[in-house]
Amino acid sequence: MSSVESNKRSLSAKARARLADRVRLIAKLCHHMEKTGRCSRAIVHELRRACRAAEAAAWLLSSADRPKFEKFRTKLKRLRRRAGAVRDIDVAGTVLKSLASSPSLRRDVPRVRDSLRKKRRERVERLLAFLRKHPRGGIPAAADALKGVSRSLGDAGVVRSLRALDARVRRLAATGPRSIGAIHTLRIAGKRALLAGEIVRPTPRECNPLAVLVDQIGRLLDLEVALALATELLSELASERAAGRGTEQGNKGSRSNSQLQAIRPQLLFATLRRLARIEKSQAIALCEALDRPRSRRGSVQ
After folding, report:
1. For labeling, which of 152, 154, 167, 290 is most exposed (least CB within 10 Å)?
2. Residue 6 and residue 268: Cα distance in Å, rounded?
3. How far is CA 159 from the centre of its chain?
4. What are phi and psi of 112, to 5 degrees?
5. Tens of pLDDT, residues 76-113
6. Contact in structure between 105 and 7 (CB atoms under 8 Å)
């Protein structure tokens, strides 16, 4: 066997080992939730992260036996989305703390907080119901079906992943984040490229610029989801006031909603500092890039 072929087999083994490690973690977290009937913030966050990492590893290892990998990734996606729905509420609660500092929005915060708690209970129940119907999310059994299926993994795959990520970053820089879906797609590309790079040439995460970029994209995605949810809840409050107290009160609720959008840059900055713990200059640059007119946006650093 040539040294090149041996290297590719070694890389494939590393990728498969990472996938197995994530599957064990997913099974452990699901078992804990099934047993206790509780979903803490930390467990839900870790479960979603593990599902994302396993999805990326499965993508890297996709082979000619495509149906088995697609079945596995479909099960991962179903579990990850249910965990992500709960996590979105948790992040929205963090954003809500920043809203409390605004005098014009302060009176709405308690009702929004109650709405978030109600939504979280509903989403947790859906997640637990899913686990009761599909123990461990069906992940371990689907992973067992992948044994014996292999694919050579080499530097070419890493280069393709990095080029795809670079193209997406350039498009985002040119057009701006037009939707949450665009940011989500960018994050998936970043995760795939990051995992491929770690397998081929391991680098400490804190020294890897790509890891920093992916983390920031993740925080940005969480923020956009949370802000969208907060805006939706404030709109509901405005509609209630318009129906129950007359047009004048409804207009006040609408102004609160508009003021939420007006303080968006400061809200983004404060929450980025809390969640990402990145340098002040980086946080400011990211906020400015988000709120700059699309035609004037520069390149993503």
Report:
1. 167
2. 48
3. 24
4. -65, -40
5. 889 999 998 898 888 777 777 766 666 666 677 777 77
6. no
Alpha carbons 249 and 241: distance in angstroms, whole number: 6
3-class secondary structure, 229: helix
Proportion of the chain above pLDDT 90, given as a percent: 3
d(CA 36, CA 53): 25
pLDDT per residue over 261-272, tens digit each?
A: 554 445 444 444
Query: Secondary structure of the chain: what % helix, strand, coil (to 5)?
Result: 85, 0, 15
Question: Tell me: the pLDDT tens digits for 21-35?
Answer: 888 889 999 999 998
The pTM of the full predicted model, rounded to 2 decimals, is: 0.60
Q: What is d(CA 120, CA 93) in angstroms, rounded to the nearest whole number?
A: 10
Does 220 lie in the same domain as 145? no
| Residue ending a domain, choose from 136, 152, 168 | 152
Residue 62's alpha-carbon distances to 176, 195, 246, in angstroms, are: 32, 14, 59
Instruction: Identify the CA nearest to 231 among candidates 193, 197, 257.
Output: 257
Q: How far apart are CA 157 and CA 146, in angstroms?
A: 20
Element (H or E) spanning 277, and its range? none
Give the domain CATH number at 95: 1.40.20.10
